From TrEMBL:
Protein origin, superkingdom: Eukaryota
Family: Belongs to the metallophosphoesterase superfamily. CPPED1 family.
GO MF, any single term: metal ion binding
Protein EC: 3.1.3.16
Domain Calcineurin-like phosphoesterase stretches: 69-249
Cofactor: a divalent metal cation
Database matches in CDD domains: MPP_CSTP1
Subcellular location: Cytoplasm
Enzyme's top EC category: hydrolase
Record's protein name: Serine/threonine-protein phosphatase CPPED1
Lineage summary: Eukaryota, Metazoa, Chordata, Craniata, Vertebrata
Catalytic activity of the protein: O-phospho-L-threonyl-[protein] + H2O = L-threonyl-[protein] + phosphate; O-phospho-L-seryl-[protein] + H2O = L-seryl-[protein] + phosphate
SUPFAM superfamilies: Metallo-dependent phosphatases (SSF56300)
Length: 312
């Protein structure tokens, strides 16, 4: 199903912005708010992981459908409503050009249609959405299906930047596209620095690091050279936090005053965490976040201490 066929059900990013939010109306701080972050619904991985065949085994995804439906229902019940729901990549498991990709995409789009229309969806590209080594064709397919692969938007005086982290991982087959994102990011960071937004926050699939800026290179992080250069850029521009997925476990750390938040998956767990979502409260002074299991969020909702922060 293409963006056109979906009939505008999702507020898809177009023209490097998200039309669900008007920049003219959203650049002023209006008080505390919250949003929901999820990652890696990755339809098909649970079966593939259980059979030990991650390349070809993802021919069933009923568990992921049920988990993502549970996530959507939990989000829709929240009161007050979150400002938006961001999914930080690996929307489906089937890589570009492999079996089941079309079917997984259609099933995820069907599930996401149930998200309350007053809660915009923010969709981030992951390695399974674009391929580990993206090409112009795979990027175009993602943009046609889900919306722009990188973009920015304002909510309540806070600037949000969505990055295509595959360009940071391996852009050898699409160097011109990477250069375009680099140039765009420099412009956006200049805006963040000059406009004195209340906060600026980044969403991307692959974390800069899992625990420490100096950790060894790994499949689940960006290389030392890339992560350090990008982190220093973000810090200089006043970015407060980067939210990611990819690891299928909760992790994270701090570098100088930059918070790196790695959230576990809605779908397949590779560690001891539960299928879940992260609640992120943005106040005038700080960004406070807490990971909830889907069961916890469904049954109890947001805890009182986080609610109190939203009243400040």
């Amino acid at each position: 199903m293409s963006a056109a066929e979906a009939g505008g059900v999702f507020h898809r990013a177009r023209g490097r912005t998200l039309d669900a939010f008007s920049a003219e109306n959203e650049k002023e701080w209006k008080g505390p708010f919250y949003f929901i972050q999820g990652a890696d619904p990755q339809f098909g991985l649970m079966k593939a992981w259980s059979t030990g065949d991650c390349d070809n085994g993802g021919d069933e995804w009923g568990q992921e459908i049920r988990l993502t439906e549970q996530a959507v229902k939990a989000i829709n019940k929240l009161n007050p409503k979150p400002k938006f729901f961001v999914l930080c990549g690996d929307l489906i498991h089937a890589m570009p050009g492999t079996p089941w990709r079309k079917e997984q995409t259609e099933d995820l789009q069907r599930v996401l249609k149930a998200v309350d229309r007053d809660i915009p969806l923010v969709l981030v590209s992951g390695n399974h959405d674009l391929g580990n080594v993206p090409t112009a064709e795979t990027v175009e397919e993602f943009c046609q299906t889900w919306g722009d692969d990188y973009f920015s938007f304002w909510v309540g005086g806070v600037l949000f930047l969505v990055l295509n982290s595959q360009f940071l991982y391996d852009a050898s087959r699409c160097p011109v596209l990477k250069q375009a994102q680099d140039h765009w990011l420099d412009q956006q960071l200049s805006i963040a620095e000059q406009q004195r937004c209340q906060h600026a926050i980044v969403f991307q699939h692959i974390p800069l690091f899992l625990q420490s800026i100096d950790e060894d290179d790994d499949y689940f992080n960006l290389t030392k050279t890339v992560r350090k250069e990008l982190a220093d850029k973000l810090i200089k521009a006043g970015i407060k936090a980067v939210f990611s997925g990819h690891y299928h476990r909760n992790a994270g750390g701090t570098y100088q005053n930059l918070d790196m938040v790695v959230s576990s998956a809605i779908g397949c767990q590779l560690g001891k965490d539960t299928h879940g979502l992260r609640v992120v409260v943005v106040t005038a002074e700080k960004i406070v976040h807490r990971y909830y299991s889907l069961d916890e969020l469904s049954k109890r909702g947001i805890e009182d201490d986080l609610r109190e922060l939203m009243k400040e």
